[in-house]
Structure formats: structure tokens, C-alpha cells
Amino acid sequence: MTLRGRRGTLAAAITTTIRHLRSDDPGYPARLGELAPAPALWLRGTLDDDDALAIAIVGSRRATPYGLEVAARLAGDLAARGVTIVSGFARGIDSAAQRAALDAGGRTIAVLGCGIDVVYPPENTRLADAVAARGALVTQFPPGTPPLPHHFPTRNRTLAALALGVVVVEAAERSGSLSTAGFAADLGREVFAVPGKITSPTSAGVHKLLRDGARLVESWTDVVQELPDAWRRRVRDTGVATIEAAQPSKGSDEERMLRLLMRDEAQHIERLIARAGLDAARASAILTGLELGGWARQLGGQRWIAAGARSEGA
């Protein structure tokens, strides 16, 4: 077969995987129903019920090495725990997050600002194939539509609607990522931001989000602990840095200390922090890990208790 013939076969194969999904079709993402009107989607790949546990990670196309590393780490850690990573398939932060999600064995959804048969940026051809194989590329623009600038705000609104929250890793003062965060806030989604260097232009927009009340993110636990209880319980335990069921004495000294403090009655998180002598971020991370491992439960009013404690139902 000639090279031209092989390319034709590949194009035909890709075309057969494309579907048009309307809001009343089975498998249409329920969250997009919150948009008025709910957009019809062109889809390449598959959307699963598990994709409802989704976090968007977005940021600068001109990302720094720091931003790329942080985006990849957050995406990989979340994806390894069953969280679908949603992003915009752009250069920089978006592509780094989606590659890391796939590398971690997880799923990712790429929301495009062009037609489903248009790869933009063009260097992401292999990434597009990988996303379609282990997730989905989606767009509300018909096949053949070029990536025009006025398409991306529309893309950003759909992207924000698909996720439980949006994490902005790097963004300049007028970054499109800020519009995604704005759409997320309007839809009642959580908005998270990763702090950067105060001298970096790519951090100016992120720091504005933090001043406006976005949740500060240093690790995946900062994201998970803000999710509603029903979603937090669906996050998988990877078995890393958790306590073995058959050997309850194992685990770090800090884990054992917190479990002992919660053994007899529920404790408010501020009291646990004070009694354990830990900083707030470290205590929150450990408690989230204990919860995922089945060793602690979060009750109402930011109270925590060891699983199986006598007053667990309090």
C-alpha cells in the first residue's frame, strides 16, 4: 500500500470514531445540562460515567518549567486516584496535564476550540490519538472548523462546566485561563490556584485569583479535600503512604498521632492541628490520606474521627 493509501485509511478510521452527541442522547454529560442552551458535542473517544469525577487543570501556553512540573504532578496524582483530568489541549500547561494523566494510567478529556477533525496545535497529533484511546476529545464546533480566537471563550465555558473544579497553574493578567476560572465560579464550581513567583508575569493572574478567594493548591490533597463528601469518597486510594489494615501500628508518626487523637471522639480540625503540633497544610494532607485509606472520616463542621471509633456516628 502506498503512503497516500495508508493516510487515506487512517483518515477513514478516525472519521468512523467521531460521534455527534445531543443533550438528550444517552451518555451526554449531565453537567453540561446546566448550560443554556446545552451544547451539542462532536466526540472522538468515549465518555464514561466515572468522568463525572473530574477536575480541570488549565494555564499558560507560555508556561515556565516550574508550571509544567506542577501541572504534571497534580494531574498525575489526581488521575492515579481515579479523577478524570479535563483541559483545553493547548500548548503548555494544558498539554502537560493531559500527558501526565495518561502516563499515570488515568483518563482525560480534551475540550477543543476547533472541529473534532482538526488537531491544534498541530504538534499534538500523537497526544490527540492517545486522548481518544483513553478518554475523549470533545468540541461543540462542526468538523472542519478552524481554531479561531473567538471560539476559545466558548470552549472555556464548556470546559469549566464539565468539571467539579478548575485549577489554574500559571496565568498572565489577561490569560484565557482566567475566563475559565470565571465561568467555573459562575457555575458554582470550585476555583483553585497554584501560587508562583511574584516576579513572574505568568503568575500575575494566578495571584489575582488567590486575592479574590481562590483555594490555594500545593498538592492533590488540597483539591480533593474541597470536594463534596460524595465525590471525595469516590477518589481511589493508591496504597501509597497509607496504613496497612493488618498492621495498624504502621504508618508515619504523624499518621499514628492523628489517629490516636481521633480515637475516642470527633475533633475539630483546628483542635487536631493544635494538639498534633502540625501546620494546617500538612495536617489536611494526612487526614485526606487517612480518609482515602479508610482510617478516618470527616463529619460535619470540619470535624474528624477515626473510623470505627465509638462516637463515629456523632
Protein topology:
Elements: H1 3-16, E1 18-21, E2 41-45, E3 54-58, H2 65-79, E4 84-87, H3 93-103, E5 108-111, H4 125-133, E6 135-139, H5 152-162, E7 165-168, H6 176-186, E8 190-193, H7 204-211, E9 215-216, H8 220-224, H9 229-232, H10 253-261, E10 267-268, H11 269-276, H12 280-292, E11 296-299, E12 303-306
Parallel strand pairs: 3-4, 3-7, 4-5, 5-6, 7-8, 8-9
Antiparallel strand pairs: 1-2, 2-6, 10-12, 11-12
Describe the structure.
By secondary structure, this protein is of the alpha/beta class. The protein folds into two domains: 11-229, Rossmann fold; 238-306, Arc Repressor Mutant, subunit A, CATH 1.10.10.10. 38% of the residues lie in helices and 15% in strands. It has twelve helices and twelve strands. It has helices at residues 3-16, 65-79, 93-103, 125-133, 152-162, 176-186, 204-211, 220-224, 229-232, 253-261, 269-276, 280-292, and strands at 18-21, 41-45, 54-58, 84-87, 108-111, 135-139, 165-168, 190-193, 215-216, 267-268, 296-299, 303-306. The strands form two sheets. It has a nine-stranded mixed β-sheet with strand order 1-2-6-5-4-3-7-8-9, sandwiched between helices. Strands 10-12-11 form a three-stranded antiparallel β-sheet. Helix 3 (93-103) links the parallel strand 4 (84-87) and strand 5 (108-111). Helix 2 packs parallel to helix 3 (93-103). The chain is globular and about 60 Å long. The model is unreliable at 1-13 and 240-250 (pLDDT under 50).
